[in-house]
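Intended use. Records like the one below are meant for learning the mapping from a protein sequence to its folded structure. Do not use them to infer anything beyond what is encoded.
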Amino acid sequence: MVCKVRSGKNIRGALNYNENKVKEGAAECIGATNFVGQAQHLRFFDKLARFEHLIERNARAKTNTVHISLNFDVGEKLNQNKLNAIAGTYMDKIGFGDQPYLVYVHRDAAHPHLHIVTTNIQENGKRISIHNLGKNQSEVARKEIEEKFGLVKAGSKQNQAFDRSLNKAVYGKSETKRTINNIVGEVMRRYRFASLAEFNAVLRQYNVMADRGKEGMTMFNKNGLMYTMLDSRGNKIGVPIKASALYLKPTLKNLSGQFDLGDLLKQTQKERLTKIIDSFFHATERHTRVNFCDYMNFYGVNAMFRENKDGKVYGLTFIDNKKGAVFNGSDLGKEYSGQALIKRFDNWTAGEKERQQRVDQGLECPQFEKYDHSQGNWIQGITQEFLDLMKVERYYSEPMNVHFNRKRRKRRAPSR
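Structure written out for the chain above:
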């Protein structure tokens, strides 16, 4: 189980987000604890009024809204009673058991997950401290709940199914805003990036991009940001969505804080990435761009060469999808930049042409290499022609071996 705790001061916004999901048929309100009436009988304003009743008791509080999501493994089948039991246990353990809270089950992703909306303002007007709530109380509660209900543990090998739930956007297959909302939210949660370009490099993997508009336009000058779907060729398609209209409000201003944090956090993954790149040049002598990208993909790394209109490479971005880190090649070192790697590939190609000439002249034995996907490396062998030749040699050599292995008979002396 994976828990995410968000706080803010807009209870109406958190409630609207979940209620709109219900209207779209992508969610259902399955629990209303400490409310007057059952969940299915409560209207929107009944729910809102209950929260506002408490929030008004502490108008000075800067934070009065808590929005929690509990995410389960894609293979887990949990009925409504068990989901409510998990939600109730979780809220008790983090100190919110006496607060009014609503439980929504969402069905807009491959893995089952709950959203819980509540307030941290109590009946007496005092605030429940939420400082490090997600890091401390929530983590303790998560581990205890995983044991109690037999859930797949966060970070376990079984839990790797979470990564498969994020699919590419396909225009017309689902509601545009919801699709973009899900992809942008998951990318922000999973990846560490230090710029809008790096953020977009990841989003493009899922057919979405963040667009500032052309330089000089009003939106660009005012640091505006729109999110749009892309077709299979990378062209924008459909109606763009304002950043402020998405749930996490991924505006350029809000993303800037994540850029700074991402720049620090992703540095721990730099050594892994450089080792994988270096290993390619030791694992094979076939140093081509295609082989390089194929090799990197085996380790979960997408190597994206950036080209101009003439097809000349001017940059390179590495997206480590296993570790959630994004790097420009030059950030790893000069020898890992796009131009530096292309130069190494070109040098190999020139050497390969020279070697082929030697093969044609009979000065060198031809060889081939094969990429072993099961082992993640290239294996080297001799050509089929050479194997055929070996069969012929064996055919003619066997009788000779038999002849030389026979014991010589002693000659008898002639009888006199």
